[in-house]
Design the sequence.
């Protein structure tokens, strides 16, 4: 069911006001695919009716539900695979070698959504770099949505979710079955500090970072906010640290202090070495 | 709440959504086929630590629609063979998923499908759960039947 | 690339064959493990087999064990696609030599993602 230009503008406006996320023209399909399930759930028949209802009750929970639906991503474990292969083969071996004196590594996933990305990383670290067990590892993962954060903390996934991109050998090693669902084992869950961070607002104090994951989230912001976020990442990143963006994202024309690393479809950046 | 009712709903909705792209919803009224109505009954048996049967009863008309989706054929092109295959596989997936909730180890039989006007009767079993769903205006149901404990015989 | 799809349900074979053909695989079908072994003898080693578990004649687990006994097929990727979803079953299949495991019901995306993590380049 198509969204009318007026309703698209209205939804764009409330999403922009609440979380500075920009839905440009051409993202109508995104609105339709994210909002229609909500329309069905609320038995409203059309996006038009849903918009009417929000206008009638601007403080109602429906508005929050729309924002929730528009800002959360359906995702898989090891999404796009190449960034994780680059991390496994290039980035972690290099960082571990460089940090072996202090034995300290600081990682931040800035858009952890329902948690598949941080848990993919934690499984990679645990499985392929067991020497890190004795290191001082600080791993934080954040998302804008409270509901997503609770999901992340619980580490509980449906059968359909663990079917997506999660290698079976890792599933049997790091998950437990609970009824119809699957839960990340506690030893992994306690390695990650989950917190709410709205990227467009002030960030809490963080240590100097070795690795920042910020994949497929800048696309939602306007140019000024993209520049602002990249500027703040630059200050947090250690001079030899790495930033990962989505494969289709770039720092080009936004922040000239970054350079793209020549790893296959990885969206891997570091600060220009001077 | 009947045993595994929530789980049956979860699995059935997921199977129909992912394999057929159909939304099905649990309804409160029970599916009781009308006199003379053709229904297809699929069942898989479970043996091992738990013994019983998982059954899927659905009107022949709905089974045809499902089959035409699975095989990407029009309803005129379907044979009873294909309809049995499609319903058998849905029953297999339903039964296999429910089996994972039962005490281990349990073993799943291959699915059997029959066309009937009376519904499937499994002698020596008692119905412990039955959930009726609605899809496209048709009703269908998923049931768990547990094998009755043998009565100790006195000689 | 060449793949074998083994499932006793024709409906499931059709769905899997369509997914693989769209990924430019040449696909051979079998309705159970024994038939699959026969077809494999004719075709020689393939790149991939998608294997159901519960089938008549020879089940998918037995098929995996048989294939892994034969050194000619050592590079062939074996992925279970099955309604067996207990953790113990997943472990059993992996120990027998399956490379991956998909629990039914599945979607096209799931199959593609699993092929990718097995190192099969699906473009």
Sequence:
């Amino acid at each position: 069911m198509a969204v009318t230009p007026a309703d698209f503008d209205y939804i764009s406006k409330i999403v922009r006001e609440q979380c500075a996320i920009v839905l440009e023209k051409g993202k109508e399909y995104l609105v339709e695919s994210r909002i229609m399930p909500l329309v069905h759930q609320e038995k409203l028949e059309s996006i038009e009716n849903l918009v009417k209802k929000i206008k009638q009750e601007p403080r109602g929970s429906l508005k929050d539900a729309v924002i929730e639906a528009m800002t959360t991503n359906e995702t898989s474990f090891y999404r796009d695979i190449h960034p994780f292969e680059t991390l496994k083969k290039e980035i972690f071996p290099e960082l571990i070698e460089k940090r072996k004196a202090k034995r300290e590594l600081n990682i931040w996933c800035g858009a952890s959504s329902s948690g598949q990305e941080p848990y993919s990383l934690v499984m990679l670290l645990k499985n392929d770099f067991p020497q890190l067990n004795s290191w001082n590892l600080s791993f934080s993962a954040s998302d804008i949505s409270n509901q997503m954060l609770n999901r992340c903390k619980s580490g509980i996934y449906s059968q359909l979710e663990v079917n997506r991109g999660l290698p079976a050998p890792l599933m049997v090693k790091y998950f437990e079955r609970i009824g119809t669902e699957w839960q990340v084992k506690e030893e992994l869950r306690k390695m990650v500090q989950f917190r709410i961070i709205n990227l467009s607002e002030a960030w809490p104090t963080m240590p100097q970072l070795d690795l920042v994951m910020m994949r497929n989230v800048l696309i939602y912001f306007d140019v000024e906010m993209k520049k602002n976020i990249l500027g703040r990442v630059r200050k947090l990143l250690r001079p030899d640290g790495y930033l990962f963006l989505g494969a289709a994202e770039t720092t080009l024309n936004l922040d000239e202090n970054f350079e793209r690393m020549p790893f296959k479809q990885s969206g891997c950046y570091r600060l220009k070495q001077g | 709440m009947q045993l595994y009712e929530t789980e049956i709903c979860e699995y059935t909705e997921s199977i129909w959504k992912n394999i057929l792209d159909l939304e099905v919803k649990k309804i409160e009224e029970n599916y009781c086929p009308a006199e003379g109505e053709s229904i297809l009954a699929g069942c898989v048996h479970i043996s091992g630590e738990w013994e019983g049967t998982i059954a899927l009863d659905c009107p022949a008309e709905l089974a045809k629609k499902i089959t035409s989706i699975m095989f990407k054929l029009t309803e005129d092109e379907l044979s009873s063979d294909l309809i049995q295959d499609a319903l058998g596989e849905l029953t297999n997936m339903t039964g296999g998923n429910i089996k994972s909730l039962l005490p281990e180890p349990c073993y799943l039989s291959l699915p059997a499908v029959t066309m009937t006007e009376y519904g499937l009767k499994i002698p020596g079993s008692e119905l412990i759960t039955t959930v009726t769903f609605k899809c496209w205006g048709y009703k269908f149901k998923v049931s768990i039947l547990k094998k009755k404990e043998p009565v100790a015989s006195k000689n | 690339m060449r793949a074998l799809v083994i499932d006793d349900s024709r409906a499931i074979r059709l769905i899997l064959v369509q997914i693989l053909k769209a990924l430019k695989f040449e696909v051979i079908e079998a309705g159970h493990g024994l038939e699959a072994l026969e077809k494999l003898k004719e075709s020689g080693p393939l790149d991939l087999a998608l294997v159901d578990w519960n089938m008549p004649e020879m089940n998918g687990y037995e098929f995996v064990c048989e294939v892994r006994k034969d050194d000619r097929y050592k590079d062939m990727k074996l992925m279970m696609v099955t309604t067996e979803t207990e953790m113990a079953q997943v472990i059993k299949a992996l120990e027998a030599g399956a490379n991956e495991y998909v629990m039914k019901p599945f979607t096209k995306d799931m199959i593609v993602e699993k092929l990718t993590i097995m190192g099969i380049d699906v473009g």
Remarks:
- The CA atoms of residues 7 and 98 of chain B lie 8 Å apart.
